[in-house]
What we know:
Blueprint: E1 15-20, E2 25-29, H1 31-34, E3 43-44, E4 51-65, E5 76-88, E6 93-103, H2 106-114, E7 119-121, E8 132-137, E9 147-152
Parallel strand pairs: 6-7
Antiparallel strand pairs: 1-4, 2-4, 3-5, 4-5, 5-6, 8-9
Amino acid sequence: MSGRVADHRVPVATSLHRWESLTSLHWSYPPRAVAPLLPDGLEVDVLDGRAWVGLTPFVMRDVRLGALPPPRAWARFVEVNVRTYVRHPASATDGIWFLALLAPSRAVVAGLRQLGLPYVHAATVTGLRTPLLRACGLPPPSGPPHALWSRGVGVPRPSLP
């Protein structure tokens, strides 16, 4: 999944969405610090001997099931991914393991948790009309932020094909 070539193609898309205003922040850790966060069967994927944990806030737009129109209640929201990079030795594949996925919609969180994804309900705030992208994830019902950052927004860069 995180490699240069896709491991397989998805025959039918069950959901569609767009990612916008994405910021990707990464920190390196000793692999032994990240390994206990992974399920059995996965190993930390290392680069230069270090494990990497990413914090990725972005705006999800046009979220919908298949060809259905986007529901107004959760068609646009800020999501925050906390991820690390892994290997699955049994299948000789690599990928991304989500440590946490933060989203403000209780309906989205409930539905995606049914699929086994580690979504957590969180208040997210973003200032998209300013030169800064700001986001904050709060655990329910209130409390200290999971994450708080302010990032200058530069010139958009198109993704590689």
